[in-house]
Design goal:
heterodimer; A: 280 residues; MetI-like fold; globular; B: 407 residues; Rossmann fold; 2 domains; 7-stranded mixed β-sheet; 22 strands; 28% helix; 29% strand
Amino acid sequence: MAAANATRDKVGTWVGFVLILVWCLLPVAWILSLSFKGTDETAAGSPQFLPKDATLQNYRDILDNPDFLDALRNSFGIAAISTLLSVIFATLAAYAIARLEFRGKRAVLSLALAIAMFPVVSLVGPLFDMWRTFGLFNTWPGLIIPYMSFTLPLAIWTLSAFFREIPWEMEQAAQVDGATSWQAFRKVIVPLAAPGVFTAAILTFFFAWNEFVLAISLTSTTSSRTVPAQMSYFVGPDPFNPPYGQLATASVVVTVPIIIIVLLFQRKIVAGLTSGAVKG
Amino acid sequence: MASIDMRNIVKKYGDGFPAVNDVSIDVQDGEFMILVGPSGCGKSTLLRMIVGLEDITSGDMMIGEKRVNDLAPRERNLAMVFQNYALYPHLSVYENIAFPLRLAKAPNAEVDEKVRAASKTLELDEHLERKPGNLSGGQRQRVAMGRAIVREADAFLFDEPLSNLDAKLRGQMRTEISRLQKKLGITTVYVTHDQTEAMTLGDRVAVLKRGVLQQLATPRELYENPGNLFVAGFIGSPPMNFLPVTVEGTAAKMPFGSVELPREKAEKAAGKGLLIAGIRPEHFEDASVKGDAPPGSTFRATVEVVEWLGNETYAYIPFEAPPEVEEQLRQLERDLDGEALHTQLVVSLDGTSRITEGEEAEIWVDGSKIHLFDPSTGENLTVDQEHAGRIVGHAMADAAEQPAAAG
């Protein structure tokens, strides 16, 4: 009976697994297939799933499009800088929150959470006015700053949870061994919090990379417009026939880096790195 | 190498609670000093003040000839083994041991030489490339010690290093630590709550209770001449028996009968009324095993439980304590982290004794080894001051005034 149960469990697991995969990946597959279809096929009333004659024309067009390349460059730059700054600030802040007792610690944490829950749209108007006055409208910093303020809270929460997990003895041992506070932090605490740092980095990067509302409202030219915003300008010559193929291609192109980054960082996000530090 | 001199050290927390109160301990160069006491006695706090992880509220901490109160841990040149080892999980065993040297920016050749020497001493050679996560408890313990010995530190500090090991390994590591300390001849301060470790490892032992030093003496002195009830009850396993007693002439009247005391002891107790007598389990014997001649007294009592261990037998004899001392004995039991439900006498008999449970047996007791304690102050009236190290007067009373610490 036990064996039969085990088989049934296994089959059930796989059925569930496949269902979820299909549910998640079907849209991706659809976009991928669209990106290989020519204009004739996408303009047809009810296109079939697989392209009739696959073409790379969409990819050629999109990579020849200077606006798209500019947007791609902006996306990379803005997302990378926001991620870097956000992770650095979040690491320092989270360390202080995890280690120090100070007045208003709870307030800082609650406020951070409140900011994370704040609807982005409600800030578009005020930010638009402010940025025009400060000369930050349509610049990289104009996007980096709001991105940081929206990703910092989450990063701080994630990281302070990681720091709390690290036994305090670790850095005390380092200090007794002759380290300054900074050395103990850099050589012992940060390496141990690496999974947290990478998690925070990925979350931040995703947010900045995918963000649309601020990107379209606070930019006016391709000098700082990011890909999600730029894609809304892909209208094509015929207003009744949007270039679905090209839109799909652009989507594929911006999704690929994300997948690569996740695969790269996935190895770093190994839980239980601290096992063996102390008696477990 | 250096001596460590603690002078009137006080540690007060924010709420004014003194975790360590006016403790003075001088650790000689090369000496193995044990800080021992039940949980919450401030022994770990004291150790952390030596190493600099805890601020000193008042008093002077001298290492060598230097006052180190205001120095950061890294400037004190001490090595410490933490209770949970605190190994760096992201570094290999080699790099863990090398860590202090790398911080000191030692050249690679020197690092390698010293790490290999340390790993040889501790038999860690085949584990050097492994991560701490893949080591057993005993191996982690040795890595933690390797990290300490690789530096030429002025002193070693151990914070309950064996409490996470199982009983067998603990015994082995205890011998290992002792051997290592003798070999290196380095000043060592070792914190433990285990009186066996204290007795076996220490050159001298400082017994603490609720932040107050009770007695500072060699293990033998502590055992034979405890300064007060607390020290007497803490040192020794099974613990010393405490019985209500009144002394009339040279006769000590106890619940079981009268015991003859040596004249000088009896004189010290004369006219003090109700006292507490302390008798170690091994100072009793089965009268039938003991033979006829020994000096001492015998009494008859009903044995409730017998535990035969082969070489010796523990017999348990319940008794009723008068209310005047019962409260004092209960308080003492609580101070020692104990949970005794009723007052009983534990006697250690020879393994050949044939006494059985429920039997009324004749027990011999060595009157010359009895200690007499004042029930109000807890002080030992019959202590041999010459052979008791340093006894802190009123220490028990001082400690009793402290609220119990947490942890």
